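Practice record 12: protein with coenzyme A.
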Amino acid sequence: MNNIKTLGNELTKNNQTCTVKTVNVIGDTPVLPLFLKNYAALIEKGYAPQVMNGTNQSKAVYVEINNQIVGHIVFDVMKDSFNTAYIILSCVDEKYQNQGIYKIMFKHFESIVKKLGSTKILSFIHADNQNRLAIWKSVGMIPQFYRMEKRI
Ligand SMILES: CC(C)(COP(=O)(O)OP(=O)(O)OC[C@H]1O[C@@H](n2cnc3c(N)ncnc32)[C@H](O)[C@@H]1OP(=O)(O)O)[C@@H](O)C(=O)NCCC(=O)NCCS
């Protein structure tokens, strides 16, 4: 049982109604194939490492417009002292970007993970994706570490 729950309707910046939903296990839901497609696209762009984070058991907050998923935040809750909510992949369909959908999802995501006991949210962004730093800052995420690497 995946426990898909509808969290409510919201308006995008274009005054389009979207439905926000959450699922506590993405396996056997329509979120899974979209997550995998978006993950593959990010790897192909070079913005994600070529390893797989997230599993069938990962959770998600997602948004539907006209019964189609147009964005998702897939996440895990880590077993550390902050119950850190680790965002594996946030994505909004290109056609629907810049309409405030990420911000809508993030608001619901934050409220859900607080209820799950999280006191910290974590995500990784490729250094070349930094031009989008404004997006993360808009939801209160602040860079904390730079991951240093050297090819040898
Ligand atoms: C990152 C992403 C999820 C943002 O989704 P979105 O729905 O377009 O974002 P929103 O419209 O909610 O915008 C959020 C804030 O960022 C700002 N923003 C959006 N795009 C921006 C850009 N290209 N440059 C600067 N600021 C931007 C918006 O103005 C908004 O702030 P505001 O409400 O204060 O104006 C989306 O661009 C995406 O799916 N990208 C491809 C996948 C990706 O790179 N994921 C990240 C890896 S985890």
